[in-house]
Amino acid sequence: MAKYTNLAFLLLRIVIGLMMIFGHGWGKLMKVLDGNWAFPEILGIPAAVSLILAVLIEVGCSLLLIIGYKTRIVATFLFLIMVSALLFIHADDPLFIAHANGGASKELAILYGIVYLVLALAGGGKYGVNKG
Q1: Hey, which of 5, 17, 111, 121 would disulfide with 1, CB 3.0 to 4.6 Å?
Q2: Which residues of 100-124 are buried (b: 16+ CB within 10 A; e: fewer)?
Q3: What is residue 86's DSSP assignment?
Q4: What pLDDT does residue 1 have?
Q5: Predicted pLDDT of residue 132
Q6: Where's it mainly located (predicted)?
Q7: How far out from the chain centre does Cα 104 lie?
């Protein structure tokens, strides 16, 4: 591997983890703490259960990703939640945010998903709790 590959994986884990926590998971966590259970039902799973699962994955798995604990496993969970966001939440949205007219698009779910897929396949590098 290249000289800075492990450092690049560390940087990727930290940035993508923080972006997911504060850009997506934090708002859902605040909803749970406020008792606001409004959330889409996905595949017949009740909204409250879907919301709790989303919080656990978007916040909990992201924290584990940042520290490099079981990177491949937590990245797989994060990848799967991005696939579900793509298929169920953003199914009718345009592909690119530039075409969303101020609304949502598939673009971020795809970008996050690809990063998580790469981390699930390659691991998180040697700078982490599990060193890979």
Answers
A1: 5
A2: eeeeebbbbbbebbebbbebbebbb
A3: I
A4: 60
A5: 53
A6: membrane
A7: 16
| Token couple for 86 | 């793509």
Which tokens hold the place of 121? 């396949």
The answer to whether 93 touches 105, Cβ cutoff 8 Å, is: yes
Task: Give the span between the Cα atoms of 58 and 74, in whole angstroms.
Answer: 10
Sign of CA dihedral 37, 66, 19, 44: negative
Q: Which residue, 50, 29, 23, 30, is CA-closest to 39? A: 50
At 101, list the tokens. Answer: 């007219």
pTM above 0.90, yes or no: yes
Task: Say if residue 90 is exposed, middle or buried (CB neighbours under 10 Å; 0-12, 13-18, 19+).
Answer: buried
